[in-house]
């Protein structure tokens, strides 16, 4: 755990600097623009049944942009955002004001299980962590996403099919087939791999098995 804590401290500093420089914008959470940010939200929310009320955890919530997106969709949900970067949470709380359906926390112990958990971009920036350490962190985090979710969870990762000349040493690129296989074998038989939406990444949807009658 000590090694993981050190890795996450570097990540927190990285994102804290981004939000300080760019404010509560897509660039403040290290995306190029709002359009690509919302395209990611569209993929991640495919795990949810938006026709009925639900609870959702935004794991790595940044400044709370997903909450705004859900509001625009007219989703009837109770939203909890979790982030390790306090500067992100300060922005999220300031922007949300007294919105009663939103809650933001910095401590995982304050998270109760929800219908769905989504995670956008949390596996991308490894800073200077060793590849093996970061991969162990990714797998441990997927276990946490599973434990927090009663109906399903989703996440995205940069793809190992990215153009080699554009790949950066401080970023983590995952094999989509290997991640799909891990989720299929570990979490559920109902897993989808989305790799067709025009970004150098993929999204995994894990739907939990329905409870036996």
Backbone structural class: alpha/beta
Q: Which radius of gyration do the C-alpha atoms yield? A: 16 Å
Described by strand count, sense and barrel closure, the largest sheet is: 8 strands, mixed
What best-fitting shape do the alpha-carbon axes yield?
globular
Order of helices and strands: HHEHEHEEHEEHEE
Helix content: 25-40%
Total helices: the number is: 6
Q: Give the DSSP E fraction (strand runs of 2 or more residues).
A: 15-25%
Q: Would you tell me the overall average pLDDT?
A: 92
Subunit organisation of the chains = single chain
Q: How many beta-strand runs?
A: 8
Distance between the termini: 39 Å
Low-confidence stretches: none
Please provide a written account of the structure.
- By secondary structure, the protein is an alpha/beta fold.
- It is built from six helices and eight strands.
- The protein has helices spanning about 1-20, 35-45, 65-75, 85-95, 130-145, 175-185, and strands at about 55-60, 75-80, 100-105, 115-120, 150-160, 175, 190-195, 200-205.
- Strands 1, 2, 3, 4, 5, 6, 7 and 8 form an eight-stranded mixed β-sheet that branches.
- Helix 3 links the parallel strand 1 (about 55-60) and strand 2.
- The longest helix is centred in the first third of the chain and has 21 residues, at about 1-20.
- The radius of gyration is 16 Å and the shape is globular.
- It starts with a helix and ends in a 6-residue tail after the last strand.
- The mean pLDDT is about 90.
């Amino acid at each position: 755990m000590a090694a993981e804590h050190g890795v996450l401290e570097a990540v927190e500093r990285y994102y804290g600097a981004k939000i300080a420089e760019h404010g509560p914008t897509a660039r403040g959470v290290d995306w190029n623009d709002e359009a690509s940010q919302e395209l990611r939200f569209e993929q991640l929310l495919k795990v949810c049944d938006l026709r009925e009320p639900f609870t959702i955890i935004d794991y790595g919530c940044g400044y709370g942009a997903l909450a705004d997106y859900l509001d625009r969709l007219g989703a009837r949900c109770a939203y909890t955002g979790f982030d390790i970067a306090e500067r992100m949470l300060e922005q999220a709380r300031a922007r949300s004001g007294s919105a009663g359906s939103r809650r933001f926390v910095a401590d995982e112990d304050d998270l109760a299980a929800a219908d769905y958990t989504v995670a956008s971009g949390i596996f991308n920036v490894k800073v200077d962590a060793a590849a093996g350490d970061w991969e162990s962190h990714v797998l441990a985090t997927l276990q946490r996403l599973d434990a927090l979710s009663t109906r399903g969870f989703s996440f995205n990762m940069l793809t190992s099919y990215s153009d080699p000349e554009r790949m950066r040493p401080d970023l983590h690129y995952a094999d989509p087939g290997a991640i799909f296989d891990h989720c299929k074998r570990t979490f559920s038989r109902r897993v989808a791999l989305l790799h067709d939406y025009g970004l150098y990444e993929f999204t995994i949807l894990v739907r939990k098995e329905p409870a036996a009658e």
